[in-house]
Write a structure and sequence with these properties.
Layout: H1 2-16, H2 22-138, H3 145-156, E1 164-169, H4 172-187, E2 192-198, E3 206-209, H5 214-222, E4 227-228, E5 239-242
Parallel strand pairs: 1-2, 1-5, 3-4
Antiparallel strand pairs: 3-5
Helix pairs in contact: 3-4, 3-5
Length: 247
């Protein structure tokens, strides 16, 4: 029964296929066999080529991965060196800031010490001047070097330089003090001469007659106390009268 069915199916398949002559059928059969063999060779070549190129691709991929890993490691090493350098720079900057702060503190202390020294210097100068004035008050009259220089500088700058006559009370201390004042005025370029020597008591201290004002300005510059006797109608020549020491 089964054999009958297969025979029937084969007959139906044969009847549905186109009919070829025997030589033609053999030719096409040979062609198709060749195609089949070529196809098998192509499949084999493709399989081998895919395997070989796959290995090469993996090799180059591994090379790229290795190169990337090496570059990454080098970059990480450079980054680590940069971080270490930055840390060292921060440390040096911190030390520099500490040194600068210390210098600033020391500079502030030096400035305070200098200010204290200036205050102390001014105090000592005032004390020295006070001692000089006390000595002058207790002993014969005198003027300091600074006062003498100020008198000379003041009269040397005057456009009109008067000739000075010194009148004085005739006693040793007054005569000495008159010579000291005269020397200061002559140092400034003024001509000085001794005038009248009074044997009777005259007004104490210093009296000035000077219409040019040069003598008055010199005494004021030096801080020397005097009495200005000049009047507009006075025709008295420029005179400095030195009386006895005030007590």
């Amino acid at each position: 029964m089964a054999k009958s069915v297969n025979t029937t199916a084969a007959m139906r398949l044969k009847s549905s296929m186109p009919t070829l002559a025997q030589p033609t059928a053999e030719l096409w059969n040979t062609i198709f066999n060749v195609v089949l063999v070529l196809g098998a060779i192509a499949v084999l070549a493709g399989t081998w080529g895919a395997f070989w190129t796959g290995n090469m691709k993996e090799f180059y991929s591994n090379e790229r991965i290795s190169a990337n890993e090496a570059q990454t490691a080098a970059a990480n090493a450079s980054a680590e060196q940069a971080r270490e350098g930055a840390a060292r720079a921060d440390e040096r900057a911190g030390k520099a800031n500490e040194a600068a702060a210390e210098l600033q503190v020391r500079a502030g202390q030096l400035e305070r010490d200098a200010a204290h020294a200036r205050v102390e210097q001014e105090r000592l100068k005032a004390q020295n001047l006070q001692l000089q004035m006390q000595i002058l008050a207790q002993g014969p009259r005198n003027i300091t070097i600074d006062q003498s220089n100020k008198i000379a500088a003041s009269v040397s700058a005057e456009p009109n330089k008067p000739k000075i006559i010194f009148d004085y009370f005739n006693e040793p201390e007054t005569h000495r003090f008159m010579n000291i004042l005269g020397a200061s005025f002559m140092e400034g370029g003024l001509e000085c001469s001794a005038g009248q020597a009074f044997i009777n008591t005259i007004e104490q201290g210093i009296q000035v007659w000077d219409r040019t004002g040069a003598v008055q300005r010199a005494f004021r510059a030096a801080g020397i106390i005097f009495k200005d006797m000049t009047s507009e109608n006075s025709d008295k020549p420029t005179t400095i009268q030195v009386g006895s020491k005030p007590y």
